[in-house]
């Protein structure tokens, strides 16, 4: 008995160490799972309506995605590359200019000069801005793995379900299967809602930035759309570059850009997301932000990116397992003696159940 406890403790320690060491790899595989859910969520209803096999629709969607990517790179690739390079050069200088204006403002002079040297503060702000924006590069670097994992996962999802059930004890397989189904449903609804929100924010930002004549409008709009995937934090990070660049024209334009971001993300957060993901699990904002801080601290940008879908999976699976346990306990009939008291056999039956 003691030996079993020791072995179990060692196994738990090894599992935790593996998760910590391979955390980024596991998050990349989780990204592949998200891509598979997108393909599966789109291909399944199309297959039911048209009668064409789901695998054929998955292949068609992948071909369309690859073709669209190639066309986008050919048409907009040079412009995006030039604008991204220019953005990387201009933001540090913009931060320095803005902080210089703030220090030269009459209100700042009336308050007195700030303590210490101001040069490092400018560099720190610029470095923090680039760290926030450039964090998405880790996710983009894993796109190849995500693509293939998602493609094969969407083609034969039953193989992965069967693999999980194989290592699950027989007495818990039904509960685990239902919990997986429940979590997959909620995650698919959440993911489709995020994709629509990303498209909405990207397109509307491109139109608004073009109307306001913000420099590098296309790159900033794409960045805003991509970072919408990260709830709350993504909206704040994506607003920093356009507001800084808008200051090169006038403070009024910067204020207009800030208002545009606020209005768009209010619509996205309080209209689109509740409407599209009303059947999925809803996470409180404080819980979501706390999870983002924890995952970002432990794993980095990848943890921040995938923190919310991981929380959706965890909460949904927990709710499903708890519901299954309540239903299984509720339907157990406990035999009674003549005096009305439950027999000891009833407690044993509940425990076995």
Describe the structure.
The structure is a single chain. With 353 residues, the chain is mostly helical. The chain has one domain (26-331, 348-352). It is built from 15 helices and no strands. The protein has helices at residues 2-21, 23-50, 54-104, 106-111, 119-134, 136-141, 143-155, 157-166, 173-212, 217-227, 233-246, 251-276, 285-299, 301-330, 344-352. α9 (173-212) runs antiparallel to α10. The longest helix is centred in the first third of the chain and has 51 residues, at 54-104. The protein is globular. The two termini are 24 Å apart. The model is unreliable at 115-122 and 337-353 (pLDDT under 50).
Query: How far is it from the N-terminal to the C-terminal residue, by CA?
Result: 24 Å
SSE arrangement, N to C? HHHHHHHHHHHHHHH
- Counting structural domains, the number is 1
Structure summary, number of beta strands: 0
- Which parts are unreliable, with pLDDT below 50 for 5 consecutive residues or more? 115-122, 337-353
What can be said about the biggest beta sheet? none
Pairing-aware structural class of the strands and helices?
mainly alpha
């Amino acid at each position: 008995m003691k030996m079993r406890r020791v072995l179990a403790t060692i196994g738990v320690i090894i599992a935790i160490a593996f998760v910590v060491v391979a955390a980024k790899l596991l998050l990349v595989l989780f990204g592949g799972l998200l891509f598979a859910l997108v393909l599966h969520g789109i291909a399944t209803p199309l297959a039911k309506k048209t009668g064409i096999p789901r695998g054929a629709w998955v292949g068609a969607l992948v071909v369309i995605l690859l073709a669209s990517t190639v066309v986008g790179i050919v048409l907009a690739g040079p412009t995006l590359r030039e604008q991204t390079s220019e953005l990387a050069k201009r933001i540090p200088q913009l931060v320095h200019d803005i902080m210089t204006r703030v220090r030269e403002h009459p209100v700042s002079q009336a308050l007195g000069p700030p303590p210490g040297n101001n040069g490092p503060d400018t560099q720190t702000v610029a470095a923090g801005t680039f760290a926030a924006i450039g964090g998405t590069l880790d996710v983009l670097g894993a796109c190849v793995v995500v693509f293939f994992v998602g493609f094969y996962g969407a083609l034969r999802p039953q193989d992965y379900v069967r693999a999980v059930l194989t290592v699950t004890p027989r007495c818990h397989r039904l509960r685990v299967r239902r919990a997986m189904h429940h979590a997959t449903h909620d995650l698919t609804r959440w993911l489709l809602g995020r994709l629509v929100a990303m498209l909405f924010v990207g397109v509307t930002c491109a139109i608004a930035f073009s109307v306001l004549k913000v420099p590098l409008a296309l790159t900033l709009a794409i960045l805003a759309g991509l970072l919408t995937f990260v709830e709350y934090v993504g909206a704040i990070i994506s607003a920093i570059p356009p507001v800084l660049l808008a200051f090169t024209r006038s403070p009024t334009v910067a204020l207009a850009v800030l208002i545009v971001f606020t209005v768009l993300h209010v619509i996205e957060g309080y209209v689109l997301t509740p409407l599209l993901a009303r059947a999925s699990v809803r996470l409180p904002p404080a819980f979501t932000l706390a999870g983002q801080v924890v995952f970002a601290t432990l794993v980095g940008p990848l943890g921040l990116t995938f923190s919310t879908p991981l929380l959706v999976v965890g909460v949904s699976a927990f709710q499903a397992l708890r519901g299954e346990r309540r239903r299984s306990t509720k339907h157990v009939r406990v035999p009674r003696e003549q005096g009305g008291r439950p027999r000891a056999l009833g407690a044993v039956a509940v425990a076995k159940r």
